[in-house]
Amino acid sequence: MTAPGEHHDRATARRLLHGFRAALGTRRGLTTVARDALTVFGVVGGTLQVYNILAPHATYPPIVMAALLGLLPLAFGLIHAWPRRTLTRRLRHPDVTITVTVGDVLDQDTHVVIGYTDTFDTNVTDHRIIHPTSLQAQFQCRYYPDTGILDRALARTLEQVPSRPTPTKYLGKTQRYPIGTIAVLPAGNHLAFCLAYATMDDELLAKATVDDIWSSLTALWDAVHRHAHREPVSIAVIGSQLAKVDALDRGSLIRLIMLSFVARTRTQAVTRHLTVVVHPKDIGMIDMPELAALLSTV
């Protein structure tokens, strides 16, 4: 069993490795380091030249010169290129804010989006249907530990939504709903937008395409507009766990979420603050400086 201190040390080491990789192992990071380091080098060098004119007999120990002209510019460049764990962009027209942060989406003090399949399965005791480590399982454990209560709430919410039976699915629920179907349920002091963005096939494999996710997000913003009253909403990186989309990595999925949201806000504000929450174990797979550059252009 791993001790808590050892687990923390490993997590710290992974964050440091990811930071150095992003700052020194990518073209954008190296460009930022070089640009800012050269800027500081020029400022320090110019200041020393002016000082030499005012004090022509001044001398500098080699270690001081190395620190001022070497370590200081490099440190400044690394600090600026180091990937941030939280990115924020505020749009003016309309007045909405987009945040990308590392954490647990269920810990956000906001409404939350939970990914489901088109059958709205809820059985978390059978790993073949819902894996216990998934966001859906964690959501149900926290807010609906009694699966019967959740099933009845889903049935009430979805009773007016057309569905079709799939008797060949050998485990779990057999009634299918259209991709993009949303069940809005209470979740503590907030709402949970249970979004069916993936298909659960007869072999219990969840599958989603880019088109599925885009159309589901479009339906999601409609539901958020109707129910959230512009209050903040948080969403995990859908498509990265429940139904892996092979065509897109996690960074691309985040960009898809942000672009869909921004496209919708150009016609109508749906929430004043959208937060995309990245699980800590996934941060090494995401180029945060690249996302920061994208956010600055939307």
Question: What features would you describe in this structure?
Answer:
With 298 residues, the chain is of the alpha/beta class. 44% of the residues lie in helices and 18% in strands. It contains 8 helices and 10 strands. It has helices at 4-24, 27-54, 62-81, 135-143, 147-158, 210-227, 250-265, 288-295; strands spanning 86-91, 96-102, 111-117, 164-165, 175-176, 182-187, 190-200, 206-207, 233-236, 273-278. The strands form 2 sheets. Strands 1, 2, 3, 6, 7, 8, 9 and 10 form an 8-stranded mixed beta sheet that branches. A two-stranded antiparallel ribbon has the order 4-5. α2 (27-54) runs antiparallel to α3 and α6 packs across α7. The protein is elongated.
List the helices and strands and how they pair.
Elements: H1 4-24, H2 27-54, H3 62-81, E1 86-91, E2 96-102, E3 111-117, H4 135-143, H5 147-158, E4 164-165, E5 175-176, E6 182-187, E7 190-200, E8 206-207, H6 210-227, E9 233-236, H7 250-265, E10 273-278, H8 288-295
Parallel strand pairs: 2-10, 3-7, 3-9, 9-10
Antiparallel strand pairs: 1-2, 4-5, 6-7, 7-8
